[in-house]
Q: What sequence folds into this?
């Protein structure tokens, strides 16, 4: 290659828009929340070079089966030009991904990070689902997040995709925590966030409502998307 050709090649390279990751990240918020709850996480992912689709969907208006199609299908269309499609979800959002994948294949699917997902349902729903106002506040999808016969999460089977799960260990709702028989984040126990077939699982000292804004959680999300595992501090054996 002559010097002239090298200069031309360099100029062409510099003029091509640079993209740090040829990867799209779909963000799915939790029950009775909105896309604004995922905004901080959205911004931090963009800083790392990911293109993000922060989905807003009517979580209280439809069943889990319906919401999976409503929320995910359009997002996948927006990510269609990317080589890889990832998901970062909070609570119900993780169940929507599992529901969608039970009926559809996503050929470009990369990694999924779930924050506080009720993968085995929540005892809170079992206890409160028949109380006045519960359905009004949480809709059909909320009723489906229990541990009994109506539990959708317990019918979806093991993960057959790359998923890392972050569980919170603090609660700001001590009344709800009394309903849950073990360590929890105020809505879901650590144990019930786990999913057969998951690639990695980590506990973070944070609460269910605010974990998606927690700096340590966000750092772990980014680390998993890049490395396929969570970051753990090495112990000093001296």
A:
């Amino acid at each position: 290659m002559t010097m002239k050709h090298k200069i031309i090649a360099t100029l062409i390279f510099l003029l091509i828009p640079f993209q740090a990751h040829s990867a799209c990240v779909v963000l799915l918020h939790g029950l009775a929340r909105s896309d604004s709850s995922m905004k901080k996480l959205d911004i931090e992912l963009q800083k790392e070079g990911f293109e993000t689709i922060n989905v807003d969907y009517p979580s209280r208006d439809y069943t889990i089966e319906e919401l999976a199609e409503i929320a995910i299908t359009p997002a996948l269309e927006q990510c269609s030009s990317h080589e890889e499609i990832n998901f970062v979800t909070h609570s119900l959002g993780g169940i929507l991904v599992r529901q969608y994948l039970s009926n559809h294949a996503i050929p470009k699917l990369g990694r999924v990070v779930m924050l506080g997902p009720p993968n085995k349902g929540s005892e809170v729903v079992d206890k409160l689902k028949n109380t006045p106002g519960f359905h009004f506040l949480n809709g059909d999808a909320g009723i489906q997040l229990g541990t009994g016969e109506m539990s959708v999460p317990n019918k979806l089977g093991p993960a057959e995709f790359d998923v890392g799960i972050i569980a919170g260990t603090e609660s700001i709702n001590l009344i709800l925590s009394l309903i849950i028989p073990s360590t929890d984040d105020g809505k879901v126990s650590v144990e019930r966030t786990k999913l057969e077939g998951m690639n990695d699982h980590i506990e973070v000292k944070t609460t269910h409502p605010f974990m998606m804004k927690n700096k340590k959680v966000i750092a772990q999300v980014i680390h998993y998307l890049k490395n396929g595992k969570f970051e753990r501090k090495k112990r000093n054996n001296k």
